[in-house]
Amino acid sequence: MHILVIEDHDPMAKIIETILVADNHTVVRAVDGRAGMAMYAAKPCDLIITDILMPNQEGLETIRELVALNPKVKIIAVSGSGRDGGMDYLRIAEAFGAVSTLQKPFQPEELLRLVRDVQKVAA
User: Taking the model in full, what pTM does it have?
Assistant: First the structure.
């Protein structure tokens, strides 16, 4: 599976990439939503894993734009903030079109289970 990881925190992006590559996925990375949108427009992928809170273009805006571009796009939203100021970012991400969400910190098996669930649906 070809996966785009949009994550501004480099150590977290490397962890996600390492987990996915070890499970035989091809991974490309973007540092924010703006860069992720450009990468997806240049070469669409099978799955996008995006953080929510990022500089330049945050994850919720990115999810909305990706879904507008391709309503069938598969997105997993990831966030360590969860609730901030009464907003539940992961729930909003699902309302905007994310097929699944994952709260940081997470175990590698949790991420792989979600990716495999998306693979089953896409197959």
Answer: 0.94
